[in-house]
Amino acid sequence: MPYRATLRQPSTQHAFSLIFRHPVRIDEVTGRKGKRVHQGLGTRDRAEAEALRVQMDALLADDQFHTASARKLAADRFDQRVVEIFYHQLASESLDFAAFRDQVIPLPSSDVDGYRRVLLLGTTGAGKTTLLRQLIGSDPSSDRFPSTSAAKTTIADTEIVFAEGPFHAVVTFAPRDEVRDHVEECVSAAILAAYRGERDVEVMRRLLSHGEQRYRFNYVLGNGPLADPPRSSDDETDDEDSDESAAVVPRTLEVELQRTNKVLNRALKVVQEIAGRRGEALRAELDASGEEDLRVVDELFEDQLDSLVREEEGFHEVVDELMEEIEERFSDLEPGTVAKTKQGWPIHWQWQSNDREGFLRVVKKFSGNQAPMFGSLLTPLVNGIRVRGAFRPRWSDGEMPKLVLIDGEGLGHVPTSTATLNAKVTKRVAEVDAVVLVDNAEQPMQAGSVAAIRTLVYTGSVRKLILAFTHFDGVRGDNLPNPSDREQHVVGSVENLIVSIGDEIGPQAERMLRSRVDESRYFLGGIDRLLDRRKSKRTIAQLHGLLAAIETVVDRVATGKARPVYDRMNLVLAIREAAQAFHESWLIMLGLKANPGRQKEHWTRVKALSRRLATGMADEYDTLRPVADLHISLQKNIRALLERPVEWSLGQPETAEAGQFMEDFATLISARIREVALRRVKAERNPDWVRAYAEQGYGSSFRRAELIAHDIYERAAPVPDVAPSVDRNRFLHEVVETFEAAAKEVVVRLI
To answer: Cys-Cys crosslink for 382: which of 53, 156, 390, 617, Cβ 3.0 to 4.6 Å?
Structure first.
């Protein structure tokens, strides 16, 4: 019996939407066909919507249209909206949001335009966005742009182009499916909180704020009817001051939140009802009575939570209503123009103005984090914001620098020394001219910053490194009588890392890193406020030095004609060691191997990772980054190989010349290895990730871990061995061929 579509329109203010089970797309929870689809039609006319529903029923009933290749045939018969909804994600597809931003505001380059593209990196709360404010001349009291916070606020990159002329902004938004997936996870988390008997206010918090802290839907929907009146909180404050105090709640927002709070109240009741009923059913099913039995019920309930609640129509109704409230926030994006999909979901918004103050006030709707404005902000839904305008430092009388500043998500406070940068940041590093690593001078360098430096070394980008130590005015001690002593004290925290790099990679890498640390380090104090040219001379001088370092960072040593020669056997050994290290790390994280120094990851985090790779939503979850881990493990060992050629052809080069060549070669290899890791771990293993996520029932967390370790990772990156196999040979040959392709480009021999 074919699936049938139904119409939904919660109110006359909303457009109609279609709900149906897809005959081909896989439901990641069950691992079977029949994924539930809910998409807007972009019309409020009932007759038009009904006609589209009838067309969808016809398409669902005829299996000749149920392949991606039949899309053109379907387009000749059905309305384009129906076709787009049915074939969405039926074949691999992705939107290039950077390309959308490029169409509106192209990024100038260093080669053609003389600009420097600069990526700011740093742990959350270190002050990188505060530094960005200083560089663009943003007043921390009145402008408050970009917003700062000691916690994660957004997944978006903020790109700022310095240029004369009107202020111009373009904002791109996360896809609807991605937003809905996160809403579903929030509803699941709220049901679990209700099942555990947590207070209503905590259940509501789980409903509105994703555990990963990237999607904080309370920014969009408000804190709910149980929240206290808006005020500053420890979770939403600036590094040094609060971004919240300047906002005033508009009357229109109060009215809108009254409607939203009714939706949230209904959601709370449904969540609690589902949690109570499902919990009782499980207790009865397992005949749980003693304390140990109840623990079994708890584990089983949590483990099956996604599967259980997605069988509930009430679950889907809650998600539908929350998504409708979120979409309603896009209904008024004036001033500016917005481009939307045919179903009404926004792709990008743009606007320009000559009024700097008014421009920044409008743009903060997409980047702000002020608590009084919760319920109207679109910040969590933004995946990129690019601004072009006459920005310049207030403390400089010189010409406007030719800069593109890129401020991304903070590196996070990662507790382990084995942290890996996510693949997106690693790719950004390869695209920019300079990387300003912002670190807090008052504390030892955090694991996230250490990981950033290691990544720069492994990928051949250490020459781009510039260190900016913030909070330098807070470095005090009886043994630190003058600024020079304080500087040496701060830099001392990097010394162990430099020595470690030399031990694991080689002396050439150590020399290059030490040179960058010695030549390009800057110490900044009091940058959370406007700098007085008389009282802040030292910090202003340091900022001028930082700008000069950015300007000259593209300078490089000529490499000459000498070329290294490498032994193919050494490359095979490097690949083997990289694969072993990758598996060793993940066996510990999956709980399949004990290690006193590291804890296994909680099974809920592993399940969340499998969901993202099963749905194609992402290739990581929080700090769980298999694609990035494999890329960096391979790149680290290949970088160590580059340090040790068997000989040099056409003469031995100077030390600086050899170092520059190895940097260039490592950069060339890194981009290719990243693509290999992405394809082998994510794209080629997608059906296995679906199976891993679909595991349910008692013991499923162990089965999921086994499946990931053996069916996914062992096939994606098998350890080369004397015993040949199709997977081992293919992986080994693929990495070797990748190395050879890069070597051929720079005339390097592999013997």
So the answer is: 156
Whether the CA torsion 209, 213, 218, 221 is positive or negative: it is: negative
Strand partners, 722: none
Per-residue pLDDT at 598 exceeds 50: yes
Q: What is this structure's pTM? A: 0.88
Q: Which amino acid is at 751?
A: I
pLDDT band at 400 (very low <50, low <70, confident <90, very high): very high
Structure tokens that stand for 598 in this block: 């590291």
Residue 610 lies inside a defined structural domain of this protein = yes
Residue 241 DSSP symbol: S
Q: How confident is the model at residue 240 (pLDDT cuts 50, 70, 90)?
A: very low
CA distances 661 to 177, 422, 736, 746, 748, Å, are 44, 26, 20, 9, 11
Q: Decide if 51 is inside a domain.
A: yes
188: closest CA among 352, 58, 319, 348?
A: 319
Q: 330 near 378, Cβ under 8 Å?
A: yes
Portion of the chain with pLDDT greater than 90, in percent: 60
pLDDT tens string 501-530? 999 999 989 999 999 999 999 999 999 999
Residue 444 forms part of a structural domain? yes
Alpha carbon dihedral 588, 429, 384, 525, in 10-degree steps, equals 100
Please enumerate in sequence order all residues whose Cβ is within 8 A of that of 651, keeping only pairs 6 or more positions apart, or say none.
Answer: 561, 562
Kindly report the CATH number assigned to the domain that includes residue 436. Answer: 3.40.50
User: Could you give the maximum distance between any two Cα atoms of the chain, in Å?
Assistant: 82
Strand partners, 440: 470
Same domain, yes or no, for 582 and 543? no
Query: Could you tell me if 542 and 585 lie in one domain?
Result: no
Q: Are residues 707 and 617 in the same domain?
A: yes
Asked whether residue 251 is domain-assigned, the answer is yes
In this structure, what token pair is assigned to residue 362? 């409008």
pLDDT at 423: 85
H-type alpha helices, 26-153: 46-61, 71-75, 80-87, 97-104, 110-113, 128-136
Cα gap 229→354, rounded to integer Å:
36
- Say if residues 107 and 404 touch (Cβ distance below 8 Å): yes
Going by pLDDT thresholds of 50, 70 and 90, the confidence category of residue 565 is very high
SS3 260: helix
pLDDT for res 594: 87
| Shared-domain flag, residues 528 and 614 | no
In 616-732 the beta strands, taken as DSSP E runs, fall at: 647-649
DSSP letter for 344, please.
Answer: S
**In the numeric block, which tokens belong to residue 211?**
């555990």
Count of structural domains within the chain: 4
User: Is 542 in the same domain as 656?
Assistant: no
Tokens 């930082």 map to which residue? Answer: 546
Residues 746 and 644 both lie in one domain: yes
The domain boundary residue, chosen from 297, 328, 359: 328
Q: Which residue has the tokens 């939407």?
A: 17
CA dist 8 and 484 (Å) reads 68
* Predicted confidence (pLDDT) per residue in 66-121, tens digit: 988 889 899 999 999 999 999 887 765 667 899 999 999 999 998 899 999 999 99
The domain containing residue 567 runs over which residues? Answer: 563-750
Residue 286's pLDDT band (cuts 50, 70, 90): low
134 burial level (CB within 10 Å; 0-12, 13-18, 19+): buried
Give the three-state DSSP class for 723: coil
CB 338 within 8 A of CB 378: no
Average pLDDT for 533-562: 91
Same domain, yes or no, for 521 and 573?
Answer: no
Residue that terminates a domain, selected from 533, 555, 577: 555
Question: For residues 65 and 63, what is the distance between their CA atoms, to the nearest angstrom?
Answer: 5
Same domain, 574 and 468: no
Q: From edge to edge, which strands make up the β-sheet containing 647-649?
A: 647-649, 563-566, 749-750
pLDDT at residue 235, rounded to an integer: 41
- Contact of 455 with 670, CB cutoff 8 Å: no
